[in-house]
């Protein structure tokens, strides 16, 4: 008798799998059909979309800002510059929104689509119109080639650096919902909401560096998104967000979330040059929305 070899083992294993493959083929088709049918029902279900508008505050970790101005012979880094947001009052936020001045407040927009029948998973477009301003009168270290180096106190002429008409995070999010208490998908429903997303940074840069102001022209001309336009694609961002959603009345809900985002800015326009920066942002968002 010939000895039992590895090739025999492979042949026996393959023969043993034939009934399993056949059984899987018989059972997988109905499963796939059921999954597809459930997905189709979710896509066509009533109130399967949602939209929200929110108001937010941001906090930023100190960061290094690297500036390159080749024509001026400058290449320097402002180390660990602190920065804050620039919110409008709640009254001004409402007034600006009602008058469709949507780039005035620090607003947040979410447009989502549920992808399962139980409405526990969705894909959404996320727009955070946050604002970023380096703090004036802070003392930082500047290294490299610049008119001032060493310990420098920042003011409106030597280093005013702002992404003030938006450090805009435009992201695509995956969103999960978990029921916590109350009637499901009815007034009184309290849900845990979690988001994970990534996308682009679309800032508008305002800055004056050693007395020289960067200008990109009026807002109503060359709006987006190339070199010299008001808003420019200057990097990427990724973030996570966790909070609570509470259904107030029929399909209307309130949402309060905490978000952490990381962004890398590249080629932010400054006078005859560019700036690079890495940013960590903490953000609190209070929003109201509805299902449709």
Walk me through what this model shows.
Residues 1-7 and 9-25 have low confidence and may be disordered. The protein is elongated. The protein is built from two helices and 17 strands. It is an alpha+beta fold and 292 residues long. Strands 1-5-6-9-10-15-16-17 form an eight-stranded antiparallel β-barrel. A hairpin with a 6-residue loop joins strand 5 (107-114) and strand 6 (121-134). It has helices at 6-44, 90-98, and strands spanning 49-60, 63-69, 74-81, 83-84, 107-114, 121-134, 139-145, 150-153, 159-181, 190-203, 206-209, 212-213, 224-225, 231-232, 235-249, 252-270, 273-291.
Topology:
Blueprint: H1 6-44, E1 49-60, E2 63-69, E3 74-81, E4 83-84, H2 90-98, E5 107-114, E6 121-134, E7 139-145, E8 150-153, E9 159-181, E10 190-203, E11 206-209, E12 212-213, E13 224-225, E14 231-232, E15 235-249, E16 252-270, E17 273-291
Parallel strand pairs: 13-14
Antiparallel strand pairs: 1-5, 1-17, 2-3, 2-17, 3-7, 4-6, 5-6, 6-9, 7-8, 9-10, 9-11, 10-15, 11-12, 15-16, 16-17
Key phrases:
alpha+beta; eight-stranded antiparallel beta barrel; two-stranded parallel sheet; elongated; disordered N terminus
Poorly predicted regions are 1-7, 9-25
Would you count the extended β strands for me? Answer: 17
- Give the strand order, joined by hyphens, for the main sheet: 1-5-6-9-10-15-16-17
So what's the overall shape?
elongated
For the record, give the distance between the C-alpha atoms at the N and C termini, rounded to a whole number.
Answer: 74 Å
| Structural class by secondary-structure content | alpha+beta
Helix content: 10-25%
Total helical elements? 2
Radius of gyration, in Å, reads 26 Å
Pattern of helices and strands: HEEEEHEEEEEEEEEEEEE
